[in-house]
Amino acid sequence: MPLASSVRAALAASLVLAAAGALAQNAPLQPRELPARRIPVPSTVSPELQQLIGQPLRTGWNTPPTTPEGWKQLAESLRAAAAPNVQAMRERLKVRVEPGTLGGVKIYTVTPETIRPENRERTLVQVHGGCYVLNPAEAALPEAMLIAAIGGYRVIAVDYRMPPEAYFPAALDDSMAVYRAVIAKTDPRRVGLIGTSAGGALVLEMGLRAKQLDVPLPGAIASGTPMSDSTKTGDTFHTNEMLDNVLVSPEGFCDAAAAFYANGHDLKDPLISPVYGDMGGFPPTILTSGTRDLLLSNTVRVHRKLRNLGIESFLQVYEGQSHAHYGRDDRIPEVREAFGEIAYFFNKHLGK
Amino acid sequence: MPLASSVRAALAASLVLAAAGALAQNAPLQPRELPARRIPVPSTVSPELQQLIGQPLRTGWNTPPTTPEGWKQLAESLRAAAAPNVQAMRERLKVRVEPGTLGGVKIYTVTPETIRPENRERTLVQVHGGCYVLNPAEAALPEAMLIAAIGGYRVIAVDYRMPPEAYFPAALDDSMAVYRAVIAKTDPRRVGLIGTSAGGALVLEMGLRAKQLDVPLPGAIASGTPMSDSTKTGDTFHTNEMLDNVLVSPEGFCDAAAAFYANGHDLKDPLISPVYGDMGGFPPTILTSGTRDLLLSNTVRVHRKLRNLGIESFLQVYEGQSHAHYGRDDRIPEVREAFGEIAYFFNKHLGK
């Protein structure tokens, strides 16, 4: 190596490796220019997960509906298309699913073959995802079935009202109504909240709302890849764009749906973007994401926020996974692993 | 939205959002084709960290030395260039640094202005990074100074032999010699190991080696963005390529250095790539990485491995950070935050 080149490299590397470089002040912030790349499916995950990771970008990711009727039609089409898969999952997981109402809200009670003895006095409230607009009725159930079966828990799944029937804050109001009905009969320390994506945001919003209303907080919260910032802010909205094959882009499907739900309300309201809320006093929380998740930043930002408040908060990030891959199908080993972690978390932190 | 398009979207989305899609079997695994992109510096980190994130790719990242003499020359240039910054950091952090030898190995003893009362009987052993080849002498010290000052710990920093003076397993042998000398005088449950990058791998390798030698394990391990897989395997080697401005690419500087250290030895040996080792029985471990870290996958793979063994393991992932940004400079708020987390972890898990 020529000396001049060595010295040049040394000067650069001294900033990079010696962990003691002076900070440039007021330097202009240059974006990173990334060349086009081909990203292989990783060899470091199960064959079943490789199949998910290898799927192309979600069809129609950049052509969301533009009318209330279009959203409703899409939600219904999805529900119908999902129904057989939900049914098959229910059979594989051997859970019982009973529709009902609680606190005036439509729910499903999901019961595993065996409720674990330590969970007899405990209840989980599950709040489904789907960008606040999708997954009505049984399409809401996979996460509830997974945690019921893998954790041995009784689960109340909230089938909250959605646009165009009801806009913000209907989803939150309905979830709170169910939660309040549950804690009327069960010590809140024995009640856990669980949700993914919009549901991951809603369980955080429920904590914020409970504080506002002086309602007791639950004993533990599981928030998966939360839509914690609906203002499209966060580094992985950019770095994982076109890599995450579920959400694909902040200019895609899900942020359009969140805006449809907000119905003109400020997207930075902590009850829509909970990363901006005051989470002081929150119970122990587990957060789950993946390295390709468009919402990895929205997940780690909540984790840092909770940790900086001194709250017990546990982060799980799964290799190669896009948004909410961790809850996709019970036959994927990493899905059973993720719900095993969540079950372990609830078991450790909920009141006995 | 036309019905045909709606149904097509529905069928795709049913796989995507309802979490219950059937798994395609034996489908060919398609890579993801990413277009060229411009990634802005995130607004979601401190101004000080923004300066680091906005730095261009490390100069000379793809032209590592090709001869032993070139590596030695580079290491010496880096050491000399880093020295003033290390000195300034030492003064800001008000730590005392004393060179010495322990177990026949060169060390520095790093002492904070005040050792916290609960840490009087505790010692940390710090094993520096630098791709197994760089950061001799005082260039090794920033991490040791950060945890000494922020955690109130006495720290022994290992200045292990490096190529071309000594190849694999010299770095590990020297680190073990120091560790054995420390635990000869201090209950191993009161001894913590801390390292980043190659040092993050070495502290894991020390756990594996201690098991082989029937030496007692330490009380806790802090492994930052470990080079846990020197075979260039892991999803973020690809997804964060050209985004991480420190390591830049698996075809860059650091993997060339690791191969130089291995000196022909199998790179998949768990004592070089500890993710392949049996970590059963490991003590509590904290792992630290960033969303842009080329080694994010190597970090989360170790986290999952430890968790699946039932070991208490805590993952911290920082917004927007490239490889080892979290230990760069004590004036960056997120650096103090990260070392605050590590100090909290050691305080909670080391024997009193």
Mean pLDDT of chain A: 93
This entry's quaternary arrangement is homodimer
How far is the N terminus from the C terminus of chain A?
A: 65 Å
How helical, in percent, are the residues of chain A?
25-40%
Write down the CATH class of chain A. Alpha Beta
Using the CA coordinates, give the radius of gyration of chain A: 21 Å
CATH architecture of chain A: 3-Layer(aba) Sandwich
Can you tell me the number of structural domains of chain A?
Answer: 1
Determine the number of helices of chain A (DSSP H or I, runs of at least 4 residues). Answer: 10
Largest two-chain interface: A-B, 116 and 116 residues
Strand tally of chain A is: 10
Enter the CATH topology name of chain A.
Rossmann fold
Order of helices and strands of chain A: HEEHHEEEHEHEHEHHEHEH
How much beta of chain A, percentage-wise?
Answer: 5-15%
Largest sheet of chain A: 8 strands, mixed
Net shape of chain A: globular
Low-confidence segments of chain A, ≥5 residues, pLDDT <50? 1-22
Structural class of chain A: alpha/beta
* Major sheet strand order of chain A: 3-4-6-5-7-8-9-10
What is the assigned CATH homologous superfamily of chain A?
Alpha/Beta hydrolase fold, catalytic domain
Please describe what this structure looks like:
Two copies of one chain form a homodimer. With 352 residues, the first copy, chain A, is of the alpha/beta class. Chain A has a single domain (65-349), classed as 3-Layer(aba) Sandwich (Rossmann fold), CATH 3.40.50.1820. Helices cover 38% and strands 15% of the residues of chain A. Chain A is built from ten helices and ten strands. Chain A has helices spanning 3-17, 47-53, 68-93, 142-151, 170-183, 198-213, 236-239, 253-262, 296-308, 333-349; strands spanning 32-34, 37-39, 96-102, 105-111, 123-127, 155-158, 191-196, 220-224, 285-290, 313-318. Chain A has an eight-stranded mixed beta sheet, sandwiched between helices. In chain A, helix 5 crosses helix 6 (198-213). The longest helix of chain A is centred in the N-terminal third of the chain and has 26 residues, at 68-93. Chain A is globular and about 55 Å long. Chain A starts with a helix and ends with a helix. Residues 1-22 of chain A have low confidence and may be disordered. Chains A and B meet through helix 1, strand 1, strand 2, helix 2 and helix 3 of A and helix 1, strand 1, strand 2, helix 2 and helix 3 of B. Strand 1 of chain A pairs antiparallel with strand 2 of chain B, so a sheet runs across the interface.
